[in-house]
Amino acid sequence: MTTDRPVALVTGASSGIGKETALALVAAGFTVAGTSRDTSRVTPLDGVTFLGLDVASDASAAAAVQEVNERFGRIDVLINNAGVGSMGAAEETSVEHARSVFDTNVFGVMRMVNEVLPHMRAQRRGRIINISSVLGFLPQPYMAAYAASKHAIEGYTESLDHEIRDHGVRALIVQPAYTRTGFEANSAKPDTPLHAYAKQRQAVDRVLAEAVRDGDAPAVVAQAVVTAATDPKPKPRYTAGPLAARARVLRRLAPAGVFDKQIRKMNRLAG
């Protein structure tokens, strides 16, 4: 089956940002393939074809991209949204745990890009949109592994974009702030918790829970993705919502000492 509508592939589309992004792309005129690690538990979405995908598996990534191409004839936009959260002090986080975070958040993106790019280069068009975070350019105490994975995505995407522009393809970043997705409840907790960090970690956990509760709706991020997918003159990065925009300004303009104090104040850390 082929389609005259542009085709978008959205990873992690069964809930949260991915679900709202898939629906927003359908409303914007796209044929949408969404993925989930367990399609048997997915609630059907009008206009979205669901496929099984584990982005931590080379074989699964290759099979999903092949299936989308066979069903719809092409992929015009890839949205790398699938990801995992991680909380806890850096010293409380084992290398094995950090590796699992990177295997999904970073290497999962790389797997999908490597599978999709040959097709996009052949058709001389396409957009790769990677969902980063304000933690891709801000530090976040007690989330070092997660922040590191998003910093990695920022560097990878920006470098990739310069490589593929000559082939008619762009790689773009969408940066959400705190979003009402249950992120903190679903994030992995420290695998080697230490008493030395317990009090501060719990305080930061409360800050994060409040921020997520009061954060942007996932639809705000979805609209930023649609803008990135359809913008006639795409920008390298798109912030999603006013808090993300303010955070970028703070990072860019605040003196280092002021910025450092603001991070500690926001996280209710002493000093």
TrEMBL record:
SUPFAM superfamilies given for it? Answer: NAD(P)-binding Rossmann-fold domains
Record keywords, A-Z: Oxidoreductase
Signal peptide span per the entry?
none
**Annotated Ketoreductase domain residues:** 6-181
Can the keyword Oxidoreductase be found in this entry's annotation? Answer: yes
MF (Gene Ontology)? oxidoreductase activity
Pfam families named in the record:
adh_short
Q: Give yes or no: UniProt keyword Oxidoreductase.
A: yes
In terms of InterPro entries, this protein maps to: KR_dom (IPR057326), NAD(P)-bd_dom_sf (IPR036291), SDR_fam (IPR002347), SDR_oxidoreductase (IPR051911)
Q: Which family is this sequence assigned to?
A: Belongs to the short-chain dehydrogenases/reductases (SDR) family.
- Record's protein name: NAD(P)-dependent dehydrogenase (Short-subunit alcohol dehydrogenase family)
